[in-house]
Amino acid sequence: LGVGGAAPPLLSRAGLAGRWIVVYMWRAAAKLSVGAAVLGGGATAAAIATSDDPSTNFKICTTVPLRLLRDTLTVATIVGDYQYSLWNLKEGSIEWSKAKHEVHKRSAHRLQDLCFRNGGIYIKLGQHISQLEYVVPEEYVQIMRASMLKRCPVSSYDQVHNVVIKELGGPPEKIFAEFDPNPLASASLAQVHAARTHDGQKVAVKVQHTHLTDTAVADIATVDLLVNFLHWCFPAFDYRWLVDEIRESAPKELDFLFEARNSVKCLDNFRRLSPRTAHSIYAPKVYWNLSTTRLLTMEFMDAAEITDVTAIRSLGLEPVDVSKLVTRAFAEMIFKHGFVHCDPHAANMMVRPLPSNKWNIFGRRKPQLILLDHGLYRELDFATRTNYAALWKGLVFADANAIKENSIKLGAGEDLCALFAGVLTMRPWKKVIDPSADHLVLEGNDGDRSELQMYASLYFPQISELLRRLPRVILLMLKTNDCLRAVNHVLLQGSSLDTFFIIGRIASEAVTDSKRVAVKISFLGSVCIWLEMMLLEARILGLRVALRFLQLMKND
Questions:
Q1: CA atoms of 363 and 382, how far apart (whole Å)
Q2: Helix crossing, 212-233 with 13-50: angle to 10°?
Q3: How many Å apart are CA 443 and CA 515, to the nearest integer?
Q4: Whether pLDDT at 183 is above 90
């Protein structure tokens, strides 16, 4: 404001109102910061009182208020920017769209900076956001994806040294014959060092970043408060489910013995339930005597990252075979095991030639998929797993009735079942129910991407409502689906009909298996199920022939 409260001549009435909104939001944020400080202060004071190491916790408590203030200022700035930048612009106009794009970018960079400065749980939150393609604005996904998986904070060697002493009872140079002080990689919750045991085995040692378990409760409570505040400001912005998910998953991901047990259970499920695929799936061996809740010692894996196409080819493998294996492995986990690795981004999967040196029918070496970071798993109960399999069977075979029926069973509602199908497949409803063989295939070109972005922007309120309705385990399946789509996009430069054939077959098998479990099958019933499976194979063969014919027509 100018002298005596008069508005400067160049400041329009709309601009003045916009500035008052910013002031109002900052005042609301100030009240929020007081609440956050009380909440965080109470939690951290309790931590000091009950801690076996009061000096360490006192140091933590001195940083928590700073983090709270940083959170509050960031959120207030983001909210104010949205309110001011879009003020008095007609929704849907060119000016409004341009302004929204710019404020999305600015806000995403602010959120990215906050995640990096606070670290830990905040990095994990940023990674979740980066994997929710077309569920959050594209600008957030692109900015977070470009940084959250590659620029995680690194603990100093002194910090690593202290963790090893505390967890294993001695310094790294005593516990291990060799220990590389420089980390091989760093993630949101831990970093990995190469080492060698005293019996000569090369291992990877995963060391948790310091103080994460101490600050996690306060961080989650603060993020919860801020997300609720944003929802109050923007009712369409409802990502409270994401905080609920982090609150449930964070304690499990911070317990490395829990992660180790998950890896064992995953491989056991493949041996029992998917024996034909089991030899192609691997998880590093755990050295239990050198592992604790905050330190995990595993077999060192010499393999290629799942999206390093050059390295994959140098091993004598073909990216298309790797893509098929990834699709098959996760389809088996989701539709048959009901125990699913829910964080399959590129850094958590590797590939190598099958150790048995087997070759496929085309004379190519067979790949073996190596799954890493088993901290985030979810179990699907029998009904959810069966309905989700039936939904995907309907999607692959363009069965509109099956899609609607099973979408409703999973909680989407009759009014949002078409949107649910679109979120799962990244295709509009008219394409989802198109009977053509390649109706779900994404070319990965600019036209496809622009169309998807348009739909995501147009139906953002409905997408938020859909996410509110769906069970959290299905929301994690959406995230898993997005991760796998991103991996396959790099391997195939788009998507492949083979991917959907694999999903369709395994989902159909799971539906058939559920019929065997649900009721006692008579001889006639067994024959009907056998005929159903033969019909499935015939449908898939027919689709393959139709696709081949289409490809020949295009080439001509």
A1: 39
A2: 150
A3: 36
A4: yes
pTM: 0.82
Provide φ and ψ at 185, rounded to 5°.
-160, 155
Containing H/E element for 340? strand 339-341
Q: What percent of the chain has pLDDT over 70?
A: 78
Residue in the structure block whose two tokens are 């159903």: 532
- Model confidence at 39: pLDDT above 60: no
Which amino acid is residue 58, in one-letter code? F
pLDDT band at 327 (very low <50, low <70, confident <90, very high): very high
Q: If DSSP codes are grouped into helix, strand and coil, which group holds residue 234?
A: coil
**What's the pLDDT score for residue 519?**
58
Which listed residue (343, 373, 438, 482) is catalytic?
343
> What's the rounded Cα separation, in Å, for the pair 489 and 445?
11
State how far the Cα of 81 lies from the Cα of 18, in Å rounded to an integer.
10
Which band of pLDDT confidence, cut at 50, 70 and 90, is reported for residue 269? Answer: very high
Most confident of 26-40, 294-308, 535-549: 294-308
Tokens found for residue 331: 């389809």
C-alpha–C-alpha distance, residues 82 and 105, integer Å: 11
CA–CA distance, 439 with 423 (Å, rounded to integer) = 15
CA dist 294 and 213 (Å) reads 9
Cα(317)–Cα(352) distance, integer angstroms: 8
pLDDT for 468 beyond 80: yes
pLDDT-based confidence at residue 243 (cuts at 50, 70, 90): confident
Q: For residue 157, give the nearest of 175, 183, 178 by alpha carbon.
A: 183
3 state SS for 157-217: HHHHHHHHHHHHCCCHHHHCCEECCCCCEECCCEEEEEEECCCCCEEEEEEECCCHHHHHH
- Which of the 8 DSSP states describes residue 361? T
For the question of residue 343 being annotated catalytic, the response is yes
Q: What amino acid is encoded at 442 in this protein?
A: L
* Rounded to 5°, angle at Cα 365 from 363 and 366: 115
- Give the tens place of pLDDT for each residue, 66-83: 777 888 889 889 888 988
Strand 281-282 and strand 367-371: pairing? Answer: parallel
DSSP code of residue 519: S
